[in-house]
Amino acid sequence: MKKVAIVHHGCAKNLIDTELISGKLLEKGYEITLDAYDPDCDYIIINTCSFIFDAEEESVRSIFDFIDTGKKVIVAGCLPQKHKKHLKKLIPEAYGFIGTSDIDKIANLLDMDKEFYYVTETPHCVYPENTERAQITVGASSYIKIAEGCNYSCGYCVIPKLRGKFTSRPIENIVAEAKNLADKGVNEIVLIAQDTSSYGIDLYNKPSLDKLLYELDKIQNLSWIRILYTYPTNFTKGLIKAYKEIDRVVKYVDIPLQHSHPEILKAMRRPVINGEDFVKKLRDEIDGLAVRTTLITGYPTENEEHFEHLYNFVKNVKFDRLGAFEFSKEKNTYAYNLKPQVPKKVKQKRKEEILKLQKEISNELNSKMIGKKIPSIIETIQSDGLAIARTYKDAPDVDGLIYIETNKPLTPGDIYDVEVTNFSDYDLYGKI
């Protein structure tokens, strides 16, 4: 039996791809290890990220590090899909290359035991429904990918070129996967896609995330359903209604707005909406809603007036959670040649100003939590008895934590009402 090491880079959507690769290999009888330095492994598969330059650089470093081990290195996912045969010329030492829409073929390619290059020129990612994921991370929560690809053409984003057109999974398949995870002890499922609010538009002729949520709500041994990466255009009345009516749906909206100024949104090829009014509407409709967003600073053509508008937007809205990123100039995107480009120092300074403001907002919001009880899911129990958890306002990996002192025996995955006793910039402290 041949042993294969798996190395993962990138987002939660990429993590599921890595788990699907592992599942496909296990089906074919391969042994899987997460230790790429295991002397007994024959191959190292590196599932790469190529969303922005920094992620790409990390993936490339990893490839060269593992090539130096002398093992057969296979480069998978976004990096070969983005650069195609240019990457093969750059890294001739790699044993194989496989693109984003070809990962289901990887086991058969390894069976051939010879060097290969398999990157479809125009990708169309379709979820391999007959493959069971071999989960790398097992805990209280688990991600479920509900769609592949994207039909939008945002000016800064390469995802449509890496993943192809938006392709939803059937409701019954998603529900079956969620039920399987719940039966294994998962208490929170996190729905992800490049654009979750457009779910079902290709299968059912209209956005159908609300319909999916009502079906998932029938899984009795599931506690929380969290949704990430919603897009404002298809955040329908039906979806708002589902948030309000379904107790299992966590009152947490993640909606990457990217900017506030109409001119920059237009330059980004994003929907030109009044973000402040949009968030207010959601908060007015859904009690206790936590709102997360991500913003880009220094997008080409952004001037001081545009940035001041963005700064005041953040100041007024007081997002519960926020991430800010400097614009990353990516080839084959509309924004790559858009002028004027904003200098690196200016992009960085603007990002730091937004993050400094958000730290102040976060402290203000956290201070108001003292003495209140907030539903929290237990992640781990430390040896000293301290429990590490996430509130309903915090998604895995990207948001804060709540540290809990208690004499009661707690179980990872269970949800408790935790009384908040103290706070820091982004985390809470509490007791049960």
Query: Helix amount, in percent?
Result: 25-40%
The domain count comes to 3
Largest sheet: 6 strands, parallel
The first-to-last residue Cα distance is: 49 Å
* CATH level 1 class label of the largest domain: Alpha Beta
**Full CATH superfamily name of the largest domain:** tm_1862 like domain
Q: Return the CATH topology of the largest domain.
A: pyruvate-formate lyase- activating enzyme
Q: Class by helix and strand content?
A: alpha/beta
Q: Under the CATH scheme, which architecture of the largest domain would be assigned?
A: Alpha-Beta Horseshoe
> Total number of helical segments?
13
Record field, number of beta strands? 19
Indicate the overall shape: globular
Mean of residue pLDDT?
Answer: 93
Q: Uncertain segments of ≥5 residues (pLDDT<50)?
A: none
Q: Report the C-alpha radius of gyration, rounded.
A: 22 Å
Strand order of the largest sheet: 2-1-3-4-5-6
Strand content: 15-25%
Walk me through this protein's architecture.
This protein is of the alpha/beta class. 32% of the residues lie in helices and 22% in strands. The protein folds into three domains: 3-118, Methylthiotransferase, N-terminal domain (Rossmann fold, 3-Layer(aba) Sandwich); 141-367, Alpha-Beta Horseshoe (pyruvate-formate lyase- activating enzyme), CATH 3.80.30; 373-431, OB fold (Dihydrolipoamide Acetyltransferase, E2P) (Beta Barrel), CATH 2.40.50.140. The protein has 13 helices and 19 strands. The strands form four sheets. It has a six-stranded parallel sheet, with helices on both faces. α8 (209-216) packs parallel to α9. The mean pLDDT is 93.
